[in-house]
Design brief:
Elements: E1 15-27, E2 31-37, E3 42-48, H1 54-62, E4 68-77, E5 85-96, H2 110-115, H3 117-120, H4 124-146, E6 150-151, E7 157-158, E8 170-173, E9 176-180, H5 185-195, E10 197-205, E11 218-227, H6 231-252, H7 254-259, H8 264-268, E12 276-278, H9 279-288, H10 302-309, E13 316-319, E14 332-333, E15 336-340, E16 342-347, E17 352-360, H11 364-373, H12 382-389, E18 395-401, H13 402-410
Parallel strand pairs: 3-5, 6-10, 12-13
Antiparallel strand pairs: 1-2, 1-4, 2-3, 4-5, 7-9, 8-9, 10-11, 11-18, 13-16, 14-15, 16-17, 17-18
Subcellular location: Cytoplasm
Catalytic activity: tRNA(Asn) + L-asparagine + ATP = L-asparaginyl-tRNA(Asn) + AMP + diphosphate + H(+)
Keywords: Aminoacyl-tRNA synthetase, ATP-binding, Cytoplasm, Ligase, Nucleotide-binding, Protein biosynthesis
Length: about 425
């Protein structure tokens, strides 16, 4: 019976065959222990010298790391094994013998591992992170489909930028200037006027020369937009979505979270509702914590966000930022013209902002004025102005950064481990 490691529990006390790679091995005089992986999981294969031919036992002892194999054996229950099972091996067929595999059990530097990212992905830790990323993506689709959202795919090449062009990658689109998208938001607003509630999931690009552990040059965003949804209702949807995703990972990725040494109790606490503080309250709080350097009108840096987040066990919304800090499309607070109806969701444990969102402007004249004040071309944004010209409604949306969310939920320190092939300030290889 041919199967996979993920399904091996269905065949206890039966003989099965799996296609696998040798992740590692150790042996004594009488037993060889093979650490096997097949992409679906990891399992230990045990070769007992007394139970097999001498030639096969020597074959097992001489296997090299990352050689590909067909391994046949009897499935045994084993409470000590992470997966709950191990394989008593009866036959090994070598498909390809790997020689001098560069990533060995010894310590390697970050740059070395990044240069060998195509191989580093095979490690147990990286496998766990990618499985958690996959579950976040799966549960994202489930949440939005269950709540009546339609998936829409915005363009990656654009002729304008929702937040200006200073941090965009420019290219030529035949005889025109074009940019790699930093957000699909404006197009998603157009889609929301057609479909009601929509979401996108795709790559975005920021030409920001940052080297922090929270930044990537290419990353993935989930961007919902919702017609007839005002600011506070949007916050409720955001906290429901994040709670849903975290609880889905807890349910489906227990083994992966344990592999990473994640404190599960911190994730178990992530359930809506989330605390909310205004930007004004955040400034007061930071002053009380000794951050005398920050003043009203300044944006928060990583130390500020971390200090605020440490005060809560759940993600916290910081709302009503100064108008001067935010893009042109955000709806002003009807009671104050110096702040907008927006919120950043700050993850616990120092992971920073994972969501930015707002109610969007739906008044034609206000949007036109803001475009002029930001020195943006009215011709380039005429199609966006049309949304306020023909059947405008109150509407809201937000964007969640996938890699930061993966880092927070999985507990890894740097976002470079949360995407298969990271693009960093000085890295375009492999």
């Amino acid at each position: 019976m041919k199967t996979t490691i993920a399904k091996i529990g269905q065949f206890v006390e039966q003989e099965v065959t799996i296609g696998a790679w040798l992740a590692g091995k150790r042996s004594s005089g009488k037993i060889a222990f093979l650490q096997l992986r097949d992409g679906t999981g990891f399992i230990q294969g045990v070769v007992v010298k007394a139970d097999v031919e001498e030639e096969m036992f020597q074959q097992a002892k001489n296997l090299t790391q990352e050689s590909s194999l067909y391994v046949t054996g009897v499935v045994r229950s084993d409470d000590r094994a992470p997966s709950g099972y191990e394989l008593t091996v009866t036959k090994i067929e070598v498909l390809h013998e790997a020689k001098d595999y560069p990533i060995t059990p010894k310590e390697h530097g970050t740059e070395f591992l990044m240069d060998h990212r195509h191989l580093w992905l095979r490690s147990k830790r990286q496998h766990a992170v990618m499985k958690i990323r996959n579950e976040i993506i799966r549960s994202t689709y489930n949440f939005f489909h269950e709540n009546g959202f339609v998936k829409i795919d915005p363009p990656i090449l654009t002729g304008s930028a929702p937040e200006g062009t200073s941090e965009l990658f420019a290219t030529k689109y035949f005889d025109e200037d074009a940019y790699l998208s930093q957000s699909g938001q404006l197009y998603m607003e157009a889609a929301a006027m057609a479909m009601g509630r929509v979401f996108s999931f795709g790559p975005t690009f920021r030409a920001e020369k940052s080297k922090t552990r929270r930044h990537l040059i290419e990353f993935w965003m989930i961007e919902p937009e919702m017609a007839f949804v005002e600011f506070h209702e949007s916050l409720e949807i955001q906290e429901q979505y994040v709670s849903y995703v975290v609880q889905s990972v807890l349910k489906s990725c227990q083994l992966e979270l344990k592999t990473l040494g994640r404190d599960l109790s911190k994730l178990e606490a992530i359930k809506a509702p989330f605390p909310r503080i205004t930007y004004d309250e955040a400034i007061t709080f930071l002053h009380e914590k000794g951050f005398d350097d920050i003043k009203w009108g300044d944006d928060f840096g990583s130390p500020h966000e971390t200090a605020i987040a440490e005060h809560y066990e759940k993600p916290v919304f910081i709302t009503h930022y100064p108008t001067s800090l935010k893009p042109f499309y955000m709806q002003p607070d009807p009671n104050r013209d110096d702040v907008v109806l927006c919120a950043d969701l700050i993850a616990p444990e120092g992971y920073g902002e994972i969501i930015g969102g707002s109610e969007r402007i739906h008044d034609y004249h206000l949007l036109e004025r803001n475009l002029k004040e930001h020195n943006l071309s009215l011709d380039a944004y005429q199609w966006y102005l049309d949304l306020c010209k023909y059947g405008s409604v109150p509407h809201s949306g937000f964007g969640l950064g996938l890699e930061r969310t993966v880092a927070w939920i999985s507990g890894v320190e740097h976002v470079r481990e949360t995407i298969p092939f990271p693009r960093l300030l000085n890295r375009l290889y492999p």
